Amino acid sequence: MFYEPRLRNHGLSHDPLKALVAPRPIGWISTMAANGSINLAPYSFFNLVGDRPPIAMFSSDGQKDSLRNAEETGEFVCNIVTTEFTAAMNASSAPFPHGVNEFEKAGLAMEPSCLVKPPRVKGIAAALECKVTSIQPLAGADGNLGPYIMVLGEAVGVYVDEKILKDGRVDAAHLPLLARLGYMDYSSVERVFSLERPTVG
């Protein structure tokens, strides 16, 4: 089959696009509003898009609290989600009213960050403390804007729980990362293997 996403002419019960571009890491974004209220929300349109400088991004479907807060204060934290936080991550995705603290609703404690004001999730394996560098509405090939707005931020600080380190490296085999698939499906990292990059000539 072949289809055009704009036309949604796939003939299926659900658009397969997000199920094909998977697994996607989950950025559990914590932010603080100018008035001091705290927000926590998961984003599967999230990734690290460079390391010199280290730039992370998340993309918001409309003016959600994470976007508003990042615009107001210029800071956000990407909490890296592992399987032990699956239920809490899902609980924090509920459409709570503006100003509600999802940490409290999901039964989570907060820990202070080192270089930014938004807190991180207590007990998390890793977190990126970010300063906003750019906020960009996403346009299609025709120039028309869609509902998504991308927030880019430099990771000015990285928290790593030393329990996930082994011989100076992140021990990926013992870091059960949670990932988003399509629809309502998720996956966890259960198998890790290495490949040496080939050389030429």
How would you characterize this protein structure?
It contains four helices and 14 strands. With 201 residues, it is mainly beta. The chain has one domain: Roll (Pnp Oxidase, Chain A), CATH 2.30.110. The protein has a seven-stranded antiparallel sheet with strand order 3-2-6-9-10-5-4, with helices on one face. A three-stranded antiparallel sheet has the order 1-13-14, with no helix packed on it. The longest helix has 9 residues.
C-alpha-based Rg, rounded: 18 Å
Give the domain tally: 1
Q: What fraction, in percent, of the residue positions are helical? A: 10-25%
Strand order of the largest sheet: 3-2-6-9-10-5-4
- State the shape: globular
On the 0-100 scale, what is the average pLDDT?
Answer: 96
Query: What is the CATH superfamily label?
Result: Electron Transport, Fmn-binding Protein, Chain A
Structural class: mainly beta
Are there runs of 5+ residues with pLDDT below 50, and where?
none
What is the count of helical runs? 4
Separation of the first and last Cα atoms: 40 Å
**Estimated share of beta-strand residues:** 35-45%
Provide the CATH top-level class.
Mainly Beta
- CATH architecture grouping: Roll
What is the β-strand count? 14
Q: What letter string, H or E per element, gives the SSE order?
A: HEEEEEHEHHEEEEEEEE
CATH topology: Pnp Oxidase, Chain A
The biggest sheet amounts to: 7 strands, antiparallel
